[in-house]
Amino acid sequence: MNKLGTVNSDIGVGIIGAGLQGGRRAPVLKQFPGNKLVMTADIRVEIAQQLAEIAGGVATKRWEDIIENPDIDVVMVCTPPNLHVIMSVAAMNHGKHVLCEKPLAQTTKEAEEMISAARRNKVTLKCGFNHRHHPGIKKAKEWFDSGTIGEIDFVRCVYGIGGRPGYEKEWRANPNIVSGGQLMEQGIHAIDLFRWFLGDFSEITGFTSTLYWDIDPLEDNAFALFRTAKGQVASLHSSLTQWKNVFNLEIFGHEGYIIVDGLGGGYGTEKATLGKKAFFEPFKDETTEFRGGDDSWSEEWKEFLSAIREKREPLGNGFDGLEAIRLTNAVYQSSSTGSTVKL
Amino acid sequence: MNKLGTVNSDIGVGIIGAGLQGGRRAPVLKQFPGNKLVMTADIRVEIAQQLAEIAGGVATKRWEDIIENPDIDVVMVCTPPNLHVIMSVAAMNHGKHVLCEKPLAQTTKEAEEMISAARRNKVTLKCGFNHRHHPGIKKAKEWFDSGTIGEIDFVRCVYGIGGRPGYEKEWRANPNIVSGGQLMEQGIHAIDLFRWFLGDFSEITGFTSTLYWDIDPLEDNAFALFRTAKGQVASLHSSLTQWKNVFNLEIFGHEGYIIVDGLGGGYGTEKATLGKKAFFEPFKDETTEFRGGDDSWSEEWKEFLSAIREKREPLGNGFDGLEAIRLTNAVYQSSSTGSTVKL
Amino acid sequence: MNKLGTVNSDIGVGIIGAGLQGGRRAPVLKQFPGNKLVMTADIRVEIAQQLAEIAGGVATKRWEDIIENPDIDVVMVCTPPNLHVIMSVAAMNHGKHVLCEKPLAQTTKEAEEMISAARRNKVTLKCGFNHRHHPGIKKAKEWFDSGTIGEIDFVRCVYGIGGRPGYEKEWRANPNIVSGGQLMEQGIHAIDLFRWFLGDFSEITGFTSTLYWDIDPLEDNAFALFRTAKGQVASLHSSLTQWKNVFNLEIFGHEGYIIVDGLGGGYGTEKATLGKKAFFEPFKDETTEFRGGDDSWSEEWKEFLSAIREKREPLGNGFDGLEAIRLTNAVYQSSSTGSTVKL
Amino acid sequence: MNKLGTVNSDIGVGIIGAGLQGGRRAPVLKQFPGNKLVMTADIRVEIAQQLAEIAGGVATKRWEDIIENPDIDVVMVCTPPNLHVIMSVAAMNHGKHVLCEKPLAQTTKEAEEMISAARRNKVTLKCGFNHRHHPGIKKAKEWFDSGTIGEIDFVRCVYGIGGRPGYEKEWRANPNIVSGGQLMEQGIHAIDLFRWFLGDFSEITGFTSTLYWDIDPLEDNAFALFRTAKGQVASLHSSLTQWKNVFNLEIFGHEGYIIVDGLGGGYGTEKATLGKKAFFEPFKDETTEFRGGDDSWSEEWKEFLSAIREKREPLGNGFDGLEAIRLTNAVYQSSSTGSTVKL
After folding, report:
1. Do the Cβ atoms of A289 and D268 come within 8 Å?
2. Could you check whether the bond before residue B217 is cis, i.e. omega within 30 degrees of 0?
3. pLDDT number for residue A8
4. pLDDT the model gives residue C4
């Protein structure tokens, strides 16, 4: 991988899975001169072909073709979660770097296998936590890291969509393919962000429910509370019955607060707001609006290539992927057992 | 009490406690011709005098003067919670109707005593849950009752303020006077509203924390989850470190959602929003803004007088006051024991 | 008037006109220890009595009683515009300081008489332009004066209400009592603010219309454009058919912009926003919310008392009152003649 | 043109001008199966080639190649305004239908020539007023046409951007190429919408100014007022010094109001709001958010193809293009002469 001199170096990319996520990630490559989509694989070969027409390279029905292709340096695994471990490990065993969609795997054990494969093969493994690269969230992290709001008191996040008719027939609703419902599918982004801002958690409680969508035993709503050893609480509601899309992340500290609202597109204009505590003044805060399109995918890709080049762990690495699964599972366990889970 | 022919009948009112809440409730009487503030009691007799000058009647240092005054038909108990039971029961034993501030008492046992006293003396006891009378919340209840959003999937509420310097020295921070922190003091309004919309809960979990204000063992933040037997979840965050005041109540059902944001004044313009689920349309909702002042106090008073006259239970009665304390205590218990509390 | 040592000095106040404006201004006096409402006059003596009960002093039917009362140092003239000149001049001739409602008079000639009377009698005359004392507008002026947005390019203001049934029968709709419609009645506040920010104007054009309310020859809508000698334009829409109350003032300069939205109460929470020009950054601005009640009346009163004490012209003095009428009349002239009016 | 059976029929398209507008319009064709981009012309042939690579067809330096190409049925003229008349007329003389960017021409005389050419050659001429096809504006028109707000009292529009460094060197700032500043370039969309909602105007007044950008004699700000024979006023501010992009169109009628805010992308989420007059109720309105991308270009294209097929005038036809220029010129004339222009 010496040829990865810069993010614009000549590198060959393979994509396994030409569905929604593959279709989002493939066009990003055109923004990086030298990056080349060599091959796209999907068992539904016709959608692999469509993607190849738009984004370049050839299509194949067999994902193994990508693993074995010597022109491919980096593989994006964009398949359902049950396939992540086998495809990612195979790719890493062939010396490829891997960007794998979230959730990183179906189980923590699988995620650990993936991390081992990366270490063993000295390649880079990244989990597709693109939210860390959203402009409002990056801004929030910068503000926080610079000490603007002081020590965190609590974090709140509501992240929800309304699904679409037939959702119960999608693979996302098939417990053989996925290992969790809306929390594992989408809420896991927020859990990763909680860890990014607060570090490790020691106690988890929560309730899940399945009232609208016919997807039991998977949940359509999850309410989860995470507490650090210091006592800071992060609260998440992940919903598939939020009829108007929402992403709202709020971080309150001793000296002020940061709010990220929206993710662009269907979630509304992305905005980052900073307010400082001021007991004797009228409420005041500043807001930055990110009205353009969603560039988190290209920012994430840039970070991944940089990490490979610099031989360092990327933002949102395999361990982050593992921990997010562990925390998600703890919510499920707490909801079903009626006990707070201690980690 | 036959003279209570209408809400504007000649009735004599006594107020015990001339602090913040007494000061809010007293001026309301002027809107009801015939209602007369006869006496205000406070051990700090000078503030009782101030209130009397503004709102009428005489001042006293002894609350017993109010209990014993034959010209007084109705007593408002606006003292700290540790005094509620003794004052309210004494007033009811003297045949007075009582509107007592929230939390109704320090313990469920005390609340039960108060309910018994009301029954025994055939008088009306009301708990000061004025939020049921806020225009946005009333509108929300009407929409919900008319079936607009169908069966509830979940309810969310964030209710928070930022406190003020010296808060740790106020009686609200004194565990001898109060029996809980921010959740018991303010969040209890939301708990009462949860019960109003969802009825009984069967499981409660939550985390409390005390990180900013020096008020341990009382909490400055409480995160609570309530689940009905059907599986519906209500989520509450009650905060004393919310640097910009917020009240936000969201009720999502199978067919749509209702949002109440703001309470006027320091919480911003009160707005009620109704949206219907529509998978194939752009997001759409309607909003009513209540830009005027807060009339919840007079609406609550009117309801109380009507209930007395009609010899029926008022909205937010003694039992509601009792149950809100029980649920609040369950959150405290869950947070400290690490177990979901089953009711 | 030597006794006016501070704004809290013992001074006697008389109010002529106990209607809407008198009712707003009278209660303010209680915030200034030493200020005393001595007498309120209204030909509808019963409303003068009502105001006296609430705010103190005695009531009279004859406004001359106030002029002649030696205990009164300051007179507020809160009557319809056709009475301003006679009452104000009489009061000043008796040595009283006068705060007179806007519009200062029915004509510029009358306004000039009032200014002369003030000079001749060495008393202070103030026009009731309370908007200069709204917290958002004061904040805007501070930002502007500190150079934050640089030289002004343009100013925009929309100020409107929806009237109320029967408006056409109010004195505001009677051309014998008033000398203009919505622009003269309410829009004149914005014109005064335009002058405050931009100074003198040299050209005025505009259109008025009367389409909804049966108040012809008075206008229910006025669109007015004012241009300074430098070419800066201020645009105003003053409306009586704006079904949802709005006040929005926007000041754009070479380096940024200031927006004041809302006036509290029926106009929604008052907010002041500051944004800086930044070609290569996402849009960003800071906002201060003034969620409390409207304190412009007390701030205006404080300024008036300070000006009297300091023997200086107050903010919004007689000349400002005169000029605002002149500019308003120029709009009317332009609309009817089809020519830009040059001043 | 018999082959234009449906909007998805096989038709050949040529684009003259591969700059900003050509780049926006070309990709739309892919949404219409059968529509084929045959050729793109630009004197900067390299950008024509770039567009051809993305959108299909071949590139040429000579616009005449498009006019003369028998495979091309429809021509989009996306060049600066000074070239519109010669290119459009030539295309129509060769039997092509023409969609020409706004402003339709540099002068009303040129616009009339273009209309004549369309009639003479029995082809369809459309002016690129894509705003009529924005979802919020379409919704506004539907609401209005259904009588929801009754007869119009007034219309307001603010439409502004902040320009970009070097603007004074762009062709948009070259008076040899354009015939007006910001009003002619962008504000003309609002003028077209005014005509769509209100029909003909009889009087126009306004002020233009050039204070920030070094583009004199072109204006960077224009304030224009248009009055119908009935007395309805439409007010427009078109700005190149609006540091935060804004598009806000408000239509107020006897019974209610419609507001369109935002155009998506850099103008923020597009929203359409409908409120009804209600004197005795709190303010209430309903809002639809169009969070997706801007589909006005494809909707406009569909309308154009439908009009060709149905042999009818399209929405935003040549006459609309002509009238918008006439009204724009009237604003310029009023500002410079100091007289209201009567049409």
Report:
1. yes
2. yes
3. 76
4. 62
**Residue C171: partners with Cβ closer than 8 Å, 6 or more residues away:** C80, C177, C178
Provide the pLDDT for residue D2.
43
Task: Please state, rounded to an integer, the average pLDDT across all residues of chain C.
Answer: 96
Task: Give the number of other Cβ atoms within 10 Å of residue A155's Cβ.
Answer: 22
CA A161 to CA A210: how far, in whole Å?
15
Q: Are C340 and C331 in contact (CB under 8 A)?
A: no
| Residue B294 reports pLDDT greater than 90 | no
Chain B stretch 275-334, residues whose beta carbon is closer than 8 A to a beta carbon of chain A: 275-279, 283, 285, 334
> What is the pLDDT averaged over residues A269-296?
95
pLDDT at B54: 86
Closest Cβ opposite residue D284 in set B284, B287, B292: B287
What is the average per-residue pLDDT within A142-155?
98
- Candidates D71, D82, D1; CA nearest to D36 is D71
Q: Hey, how many other C-beta atoms are within 10 angstroms of the C-beta on C298?
A: 20
Q: Give yes or no for residue C169 having a pLDDT over 50.
A: yes
Residue A269 to residue D265, Cβ atoms within 8 A: no
Q: Decide: helix, strand or coil at residue C176.
A: coil
CB-count exposure of residue C228 (10 Å: 0-12, 13-18, 19+): middle
Q: With b meaning 16 or more CB within 10 Å and e meaning fewer, what string describes D72-91?
A: bbbbbbbbbbbbbbbbbbbb
Q: How far apart are CA B131 and CA B151, in angstroms?
A: 22
Average pLDDT over residues D6-25: 91
Cβ–Cβ < 8 Å for A180, A218 = yes
Q: How confident is the model at residue C6 (pLDDT cuts 50, 70, 90)?
A: confident
Separation CA A73–CA A1 (nearest Å): 7
Q: Does D248 touch chain C (CB under 8 A)?
A: no
> Is A196 part of the contact surface with chain D (CB cutoff 8 Å)?
no
Q: What is the DSSP string of A54-111?
A: HH-SEEES-THHHHH-TT--EEEE-S-GGGHHHHHHHHHHTT-EEEEPSSS-SSHHHH
Over 90: is that where the pLDDT of D96 sits? Answer: yes
A267 touches chain D (CB under 8 A): yes
Beta bridge partners of C246: C160
Instruction: Please answer yes or no on whether C268 and B265 come within 8 Å at the CB atom.
Output: no
Task: Answer yes or no: do D286 and B286 touch at CB < 8 A.
Answer: yes
Q: How many helices (H) and strands (E) does chain A have?
A: 10, 15
Whether the pLDDT of residue B298 is over 70: the answer is yes
Chain C closest CA to B50's CA: distance in Å? Answer: 14
Helix runs in D245-317, H state only: 296-310
Q: What pLDDT was estimated at residue B3? A: 56
CA distance B208 to B201: 19
Contact (Cβ atoms closer than 8 angstroms) between residue C210 and residue C218: yes
Residue C149 φ then ψ, to 5°: -105, 5
Among all residues of chain B, which has the CA nearest to that of C244?
B289
Position D1 scores a pLDDT of 42
Q: For position C124, what pLDDT does the model report?
A: 98
Summarize the confidence of residues A197-206 as an average pLDDT.
98
Q: Which of B243, B257, B276 to mutate to test the interface with A (most CBs of A within 10 A)?
A: B243
- The answer to whether the predicted template modeling score (pTM) of the entire model surpasses 0.90 is yes
Q: Specify whether the CB–CB gap between B220 and B129 falls below 8 A.
A: no
Of all residues in chain A, what percent carry a pLDDT higher than 90?
Answer: 95
Contact C12, C73 (CB under 8 A): yes
Phi/psi at D98 (5° precision) = -130, 130
Instruction: Give the pLDDT confidence score for residue A4 in this predicted structure.
Output: 63
CB < 8 Å from D in window 206-245 of C: 206-207, 209-212, 220-221, 223, 225, 227, 230-233, 235, 237, 239, 241-245
